[in-house]
Amino acid sequence: MASVPLATIAVDAMGGDFAPGAVLEGVASALAADPSLRVLLVGGLEIVEAFATAHERCEAVATTQVIGMGEHSAAAVRGKPDSSIVVGCRLVKEGRADGFFSAGSTGAAMAAATLIIGRIKGVQRPAIATVLPTAGSPCVLVDSGANADCKPEHLAQFATMGAAYARTALGILEPRVGLLNIGEEPTKGSQLAQEAYLLLKAGSPGFVGNVEGRDIPAGTVDVVVTDGFTGNVMLKLMEGMSKHLLAEFKTALMSSPVNKVAAAILKPSLDALRDRLDPDSHGAAPLLGLNGLALIGHGSSGPRAIASALRVGAVAVRAGLVGSIAASLTPEDA
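^ that's the sequence the OP posted. Answer follows.
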């Protein structure tokens, strides 16, 4: 059996609502599940050294500063050079780590990754790619929050990078790309959407046209392209609606003795459905377009989400995601 390549991920031990406990528990699970995973644990000395001493394939990288959730992103990155987020990104820049993960301040993580790791030549705007469950294979939503204001050429590049991610990390050989809009016709939507449609039609392999919000859960396309404002609203709506429907379904199943018997019979199937819809199953979203891998996690990430994020990171490293994106850019981009 061929050996699995080693993947080294730097992890922000201080980031997230439940850090460091949830982060440490998630890292421990990830290390146990993947014998070819190595972690550089970045954070307070007492926290990271004690954990690294007790776990193989984990190295402590001590820092003295933490960027809080409420701090101004760019100012915090510049003003706290020894923070766990900044140091984690620096480990990628220096080649000591293949990727970096943080469930801390999203803005600070994006700012540090962009400033320190740097963009691939030709990339105008790095974008967050989030994997969404559908009736078929999962699809990639890009951008899901990095760029609230976009130009048509940004969306065209998001499509290229999102398709590269779908091919490399999800194994979709010929991704179908759709532009999120309020109608299928090319003339529908905002000026941004109409101009982006023309660019995608002219230069994006796999582009199938506009898609509406209702098309996404049906698995109509493999890559959904939109601006970060719209994408983030759509993402949060889907996550909230999934939780609401599952909670309502559980309430209905517990509403009578007969329904409780049915619930016991259906439990394995319901657990599988919950896991498929749970955003923690992917744990993190990569910031596409950088010269190294940077993964953004939910602030509310628990141990399962942390472990999933490291799994996603290891897959991306071993699949050569960064190189695949660089190769997918046209000569005009580069």
